[in-house]
Amino acid sequence: VLIRALRQTDLARVVGALAAIDRPRSPELYSRYLAEQAAGARIVWLAEDGPFFLGHVCVVWSSGYEPFRVEGIPEIADLIVMPAHRRHGIGSQLIEVAENSIVERADLAGIAVGLYADYGHALRLYLRRGYRPDGRGIAYGGRTVPPGECIRVDDRATLQLVKLLR
Ligand SMILES: CC(C)(COP(=O)(O)OP(=O)(O)OC[C@H]1O[C@@H](n2cnc3c(N)ncnc32)[C@H](O)[C@@H]1OP(=O)(O)O)[C@@H](O)C(=O)NCCC(=O)NCCS
Q1: Which of 13, 77, 140, 158 suits 116 as a labelling partner, its CA being 20 to 30 A distant?
Q2: Residue whose CA lies nearest to ligand 1 atom number 34
Q3: Whose CA is nearest to atom 16 of ligand 1?
Q4: Residues 13-27: pLDDT tens digits?
Q5: What is the spatial distance between Cα 22 and Cα 18, in angstroms, rounded to a whole number?
Q6: Residue nearest to atom 32 of ligand 1 (CA)
Q7: What is the position in ligand 1's atom list of the atom closest to the CA of 57?
Q8: Residue 14 contacts by C-beta under 8 Å, 6 or more apart in sequence?
Q9: What torsion do the CA atoms of 56, 59, 64, 65 make, to the nearest 10 degrees?
Q10: CA-to-CA distance for 87 and 89, rounded, in angstroms?
Q11: Separation of 21 CA from ligand 1 center, angstroms?
């Protein structure tokens, strides 16, 4: 498994692979990621095995979640491993590469994880790697949810975790 930064020439392969597993992503999204990577705002780490796309993860230097942004905590985001290649440690390797890039600049890494069962493996993986809740409870779309407020438990409802890297 080779892990390297995303390139323009990967776009069709990545978009095609994710569409095939019913996780459609637009080429425009990855064009934006590449532009942000060129601007130094994001790194997209891609895992591949020869011609096969296995998964990816992003490092976002300035998080959309205000507490991370204010405290200068870079965020690990958009982790995905192709279903046929899960449970072989690729997700862990991607997180490790992301952490290694963050530790050069910051003490802490942050991650947001969804609240429903689809995110169960991700949550277990993060806890096993030493991530802990940031103590601010649930956020919705990056905004902390105040007590008593109703939210929809969809992809925007997240719990934020942090890990001390050094
Ligand atoms: C979360 C996700 C990225 C994990 O990827 P992965 O490559 O399967 O991750 P790992 O292999 O490192 O670990 C996952 C599981 O495999 C197990 N595993 C790791 N290496 C293994 C091996 N060699 N043999 C058997 N099992 C192994 C781990 O113990 C872990 O098990 P658990 O979930 O029961 O605790 C993947 O499930 C995924 O893409 N999910 C959908 C998207 C998602 O939720 N993204 C996160 C958004 S916050």
Answers
A1: 13
A2: 121
A3: 87
A4: 999 999 999 999 999
A5: 6
A6: 121
A7: 3
A8: 6, 25, 30, 46, 53, 56
A9: 100
A10: 6
A11: 16
Q: Measure the CA dihedral 53/57/62/65, to 10°.
A: 120
How far apart are the C-alpha atoms of 19 and 81, rounded to whole Å?
Answer: 13
- From the alpha carbon of 85, which atom of ligand 1 is closest? 7
**Ligand 1 first shell, C-beta below 6 A:** 79-81, 86-92, 113-114, 118-119, 121-122, 124-125
CB-based burial of residue 151 (10 Å sphere; 0-12 exposed, 13-18 middle, 19+ buried)? middle
Q: What number of other Cβ atoms are within 10 A of residue 69's Cβ?
A: 17
Distances (CA, A) of 20 to 15, 72, 83, 93, 97: 9, 36, 11, 23, 26
State how far the Cα of 114 lies from the Cα of 151, in Å rounded to an integer: 13
Q: What tokens does 5 get?
A: 């930064």
pLDDT digits (tens, 9 = 90+) for 42-93: 999 999 999 999 999 999 999 999 999 999 999 999 999 999 999 999 999 9
* pTM assigned to the model: 0.96
